[in-house]
Design goal:
heterodimer; A: 611 residues; mainly alpha; B: 108 residues
């Protein structure tokens, strides 16, 4: 029964090829290839999940490359984490594609969009299935390519191209670390296999330094892909892509891949406690800083983008404090509610034609379905019980508390308070209050059924998934682990969340003047947050220092020294040529005279030398 | 062995050298095409004088070889003059000048 798992990734690939080659002929119906393939993949993945739950191991591999002593096998192995992710990825992306049929309707590059989305999902599924670094990395890089193509889908606007390039290059910085980690661990153990690697490393009895270094290099790849500080700068710009892509990148693929990478190589991290601590620290800082940045955004998609950064930080906290299952649990619930939120935001944008929340307001009356589902997603994001986000975030923070990582716990708890604040703020600004732009409000309308249906479908797991699988997923992913218990402190995140929500409610239903006074009172803080903690400037600074500066120097060297030498030789030849040219003026008499004089001189010389 | 006129070989050679130099100067420095042709003619004839003189003064076994050479040179000179003058005529018809400073088609 194990032999068909590869179909989960292969079917979307077939759909992709079909879309590329016959897509133009069938027009917008080509989207159905992808949707059907992903639906079948989702069903297959569910079957696999059931099998894995029943204790079956699903693995297969074939030799792929044999060069001398280098043997690379291709194959897959599906454990609990992979089974859960396969199911989640295929389900969520299937609904995103269905939704896109409505959202992208009439787009000039409709088929291209669907083909790229399908390839994107294929790559993610490959990454999840892979049992070795090589196949994993292939999927990983194809995802990078697809994110570039899709963020820059509307490439007529140069800003979108810049965002696409930024995403590609920033994640590439992390990829360098990942590649080095892969290379290093291979040079030590001669295996790329995920299952064999930890054992092979442990029998070498390496010093803690080497193991930590390998783990941190691998983690660097995750930092880039999962938009952790300081490489988070690409993710908000990635909002330039169509909204379903934001949903796909933020929920099912791409950013999830980074968290998954750490989970996949988790045994290595467990051998390297310092590296694991750094994972938690980066996660905690990201969770906190990401949440602060989200509080001042006015673009509805940007709010969600920063919330993604923050939530990914929570997952990293979970991984960092040893509760890998909690991190994956949050990844799962986050995938559902974040996809829901993005698709809801897309529905709003579709209706109003703007992303600026200052131009929305009162949409509750126009978009009931969107509003209700968005609020469900928002509650999940704010971790209000009984939504899925509450259970998973609670599990992470309680685990952090139990592991006595109080720094992580407090940063996470404060972040949870701010999360509730910005969620409440976004909901109030978008759906409630008076319409701020009457002309936009007048034209707003509910989105077509093809867009609202996926919202309702995604709202169900966003609301109830945690309630159902809270216990089972812990037993499944980490058998024998007791439920984390933080005692009375366990209620702290929820308390802070309620406080945050109330503050937002008071501020955003109160008079505008009060908000303005508050902003001017907290001017330096406000500027700091508005400028995203100056991370972009920091990034540019580093790039200038390390990249642009030296390259300018090299360019100057090339222009003045290398080119100078090359052109100098040419110019010298030119100068000599010009001098010679005077002799050769086309006057035959001149030539003859030269000849005669030279002959005479030659003869005289011959005579003088003793001819 | 002196010639019948009693002029020694060196006398012929000096005359021939003088003729050659005058011819060379004419050919190289005059700008009139006809004068250049005449200069070339003069140089060829200077060579002829040398050939005939050596033929006369160099001892037996040589036969009349030098004089035969002189005849060849004369024939070639005649041909050269015919071709050269024909060219000069064409050039003068086309360009209204036979000043070689103005006929510099080879200039790159």
């Amino acid at each position: 029964m194990a032999g068909y798992a590869w179909l989960v990734a292969a079917l979307p690939l077939v759909a992709y090829v079909l879309m590329v080659f016959v897509g133009r002929r069938v027009g917008e119906k080509a989207a159905l290839f992808g949707i059907v393939a992903l639906a079948v993949s989702a069903i297959l993945a569910s079957v696999i999940l059931v099998q894995v739950v029943h204790g079956q191991t699903i693995a297969a591999s074939i030799p792929w490359v044999t060069v001398g002593t280098l043997k690379i096998t291709m194959g897959y192995s599906v454990g609990p984490v992979e089974a859960v992710l396969l199911t989640m990825v295929s389900f969520v992306s299937c609904f995103i594609e269905i939704y896109s049929m409505g959202y992208m309707h009439g787009d000039a590059r409709y088929n291209r969009f669907f083909a790229n989305v399908t390839l994107f999902v294929t790559a993610m599924l490959t990454t999840v299935l892979a049992n070795n670094f090589i196949l994993f990395f292939a999927g990983w890089e194809i995802m990078g390519l697809c994110s570039y193509l899709l963020i820059g889908h509307w490439f007529e606007d140069p800003a979108n191209c810049r965002a696409a390039t930024k995403a590609f290059i920033v994640t590439r910085i992390g990829d360098v670390g990942l590649l080095l980690g892969i290379w290093w661990s291979y040079s030590l153990t001669h295996t790329f296999n995920f299952n064999a690697l930890p054992g092979a490393l442990s029998v070498l009895h390496l010093g803690g330094g080497t193991l930590n270094a390998i783990a941190l290099l691998i983690f660097l790849g995750a930092v880039g892909k999962s938009a952790q500080i300081p490489l988070q700068i690409w993710l908000p710009d990635a909002m330039a892509g169509p909204t379903p892509i934001s949903a796909l990148i933020h929920a099912a693929t791409m950013v999830a891949a980074g968290v998954f990478l750490v989970a996949r190589t988790y045994p290595i991290f467990q051998m390297a406690p310092s590296a694991l601590w750094w994972v938690g620290l980066v996660g905690a800082v990201t969770a906190f800083v990401g949440a602060t940045m989200a509080t001042v955004q006015v673009d509805i998609k940007k709010v969600l983008a920063y919330s993604t950064i923050s939530q990914l930080g929570y997952m990293m906290i979970g991984l960092g404090v040893g509760a890998m299952w909690a991190g994956i649990f949050h990844l799962l619930s986050h995938a559902f509610f974040k996809a829901l939120l993005f698709l809801g935001a897309g529905s709003v944008i579709h209706a109003t034609g703007t992303q600026n929340m200052h131009e929305m307001g009162g949409l509750w009356h126009k978009q009931k379905s969107t509003a209700i589902t968005f609020i469900v997603g928002g509650l999940a994001l704010a971790a209000i019980p009984p939504t899925s986000g509450y259970f998973s975030k609670d599990a992470i923070l309680a685990s952090a508390y139990q592991a006595h990582d109080m720094l992580f716990f407090w940063l996470g708890a404060l972040g949870a308070g701010m999360t509730a604040y910005y969620v409440m703020r976004a909901i109030l600004m978008t759906f409630f209050g008076k319409p701020k732009k009457p002309e936009i409000y007048a034209h707003a309308h509910e989105s077509p059924r093809v867009m609202t249906a996926p919202l309702w479908v995604l709202a169900v797991p966003a609301a109830f998934l945690g309630l159902v699988i809270d216990g089972p997923i812990r037993h499944f992913l980490a058998p024998g682990t007791p439920a984390p218990n933080a005692g009375w402190m366990g209620y702290l995140p929820l308390t802070l969340a309620v406080i945050g929500a109330v503050v937002a409610y008071v501020l955003y239903t109160g008079p505008v003047a009060r908000r303005a006074r508050l902003i001017s009172a907290l001017r330096p803080l406000y500027v700091l947050l508005k400028e995203k903690w100056f991370f972009d400037h920091l990034g540019s600074g580093v790039v200038y220092l390390l990249g642009v500066g030296p390259s300018l120097a090299i360019s100057a060297f090339d222009r003045y020294v290398v080119d100078g030498a090359v052109n100098g030789v040419g110019r010298m030849a030119l100068w000599f040529g010009r001098q010679w040219r005077r002799l050769v003026d086309g006057n035959a008499q001149g030539y003859m005279l030269t000849l005669a004089v030279a002959l005479a001189i030659g003869l005289i010389a011959l005579q003088a030398l003793g001819g | 062995m002196p010639g019948a006129s009693g002029v020694p070989l060196i006398g012929y050679l000096i005359v021939a050298a003088a003729m050659f130099c005058i011819g060379a100067f004419t050919a190289l420095r005059r700008t009139n095409a006809i004068m250049i042709l005449m200069g070339i003619e003069l140089m060829l004839n200077a060579v002829n004088v040398n050939l005939v003189a050596f033929s006369r003064f160099v001892p037996a076994g040589n036969g009349a070889r030098g004089q035969v050479f002189a005849l060849f040179v004369l024939a070639v000179a005649a041909a050269e003059a015919a071709v050269g003058l024909a060219m000069v005529i064409i050039v003068s018809r086309r360009r209204d000048t036979i000043d070689v400073d103005h006929i510099n088609l080879m200039r790159g």
